[in-house]
Amino acid sequence: MKPFLQTLRGEALGTPPLWLMRQAGRYLPEYRALRQKAKGFVDFCFSPELAIEATLQPIRRYGFDAAILFADILLVPHALGQTVSFVEGEGPRFEPIRDAAGLKRLSQDKAANVLAPVMATVAGVAAALPPETALIGFAGAPWTVATYMVEGRGGTDHGEIRKLAWTQPEVFAGIVDHLVEATSAYLIAQVDAGAEALQIFDTWAGSVPAGLFETAVIRPTARIVAAVRAHRPDVPIIGFPRGAASHLAAYAKGTGVNGIGVDHMTDLVFAAASVPANVTLQGNLDPLLLLEGGAVMEAETRKILAAMDGRPFLFNLGHGVTPPTPPEHVAKLVDIVRGRI
Ligand code: CP3
């Protein structure tokens, strides 16, 4: 079995498998060249030929143990009828949903059709990967995707979505229901096209008020996990509830995920003590250390490896690779984790 999948089954390997969140993207010169070939970022994601190539670029360069499908978490609201645009240098923009009238603009009708090109990407990547490399499919968790849908953009304090979740719970629940339905179908379709594991990104789980964590994070994620398992019981699922360390135990228990991505703000030993022993942990080098490189990166990487020795563990960052990261630092990190230096 592929080492990445063995680890997600709960086996502790001597050398942990390795992949990086945002391993494809702007830090790679070959990605920047490829990106020129499509006008908008959404068009890029929906062009299987380009997205297959973007997925494979970091595998060729570094030989990671897993490839992650090249797409974006914001394709799901786009497919529900809330058109996303990516403004150069500014990030995603939506016409925000703030009330019942806004909610009515969402529809499942075209979702599967709009997302169909992503399945062509998955199938193309699956056919091209080296035999030892696993393919990860992904989607955003409802809370994180809803933050963009309600705020209309990134970079806010999530005040609008917190207000909506507290004061118009039925509108919030309506958005979540749409996301659970579309995301479950989307992930099942990715598995059918060749994805061997799934990651659910909850990048903004840390901004959920404690009193809403169960309703906004755990239950919607659990519904997606259950829907995927009902159709494809064997596919391992990793959750990434970033910034939510105080809820890790409840998250692991309540969602039933096979693996948990740990952010760099959270101590891995604390995370290990918070979740059942058969839950695989993944993480958690600070992406800033990958950017900086040098002795601190090396020392912190070795600390992580030592702390997780003997436990089912996937090496990763605590969040994604940042665009200014020098590609040679990534090569060095791979050599350290592989035990070559
Ligand atoms: O290697 C990979 O990880 C593959 C693909 C991938 C992308 N986005 C490509 C992308 C994945 C898994 C994502 C997930 C994603 N997208 C998340 C969750 C993970 C995280 O980083 O927190 C979030 C919150 C998004 C939403 C998103 N997409 C934003 C806020 C932005 C703009 C900011 C930015 O980083 O540019 C994007 C755009 C985006 N998604 C790019 C890439 C490579 C850059 C756009 C470009 O290349 O033109």
List keywords for this structure.
341 residues, TIM Barrel, two-stranded antiparallel ribbon, 16 helices, 9 strands, 12% strand, binds coproporphyrinogen III
Question: Helix and strand layout, with pairings?
Answer:
Elements: H1 3-8, H2 29-35, H3 41-45, H4 48-62, E1 66-68, H5 75-79, E2 85-87, E3 91-93, H6 100-103, H7 111-128, E4 134-140, H8 142-151, H9 159-167, H10 169-193, E5 197-202, H11 213-231, E6 237-241, H12 248-255, E7 259-261, H13 268-274, E8 280-285, H14 287-292, H15 294-307, E9 313-317, H16 327-337
Parallel strand pairs: 1-4, 4-5, 5-6, 6-7, 7-8, 8-9
Antiparallel strand pairs: 2-3
Bound molecules: coproporphyrinogen III.
Coproporphyrinogen III binds near residues 25, 70, 154 and 201.
Commentary on this structure:
The protein is an alpha/beta fold. It has one domain (3-337): TIM Barrel (Alpha-Beta Barrel). 50% of the residues lie in helices and 12% in strands. It contains 16 helices and nine strands. The strands form two sheets. It has a seven-stranded parallel sheet with strand order 1-4-5-6-7-8-9. Helix 13 links the parallel strand 7 and strand 8 (280-285). Helix 4 (48-62) packs parallel to helix 7 (111-128). It is globular. It starts with a helix and ends with a helix. The mean pLDDT is 98. The protein binds coproporphyrinogen III. Coproporphyrinogen III binds next to strand 3.
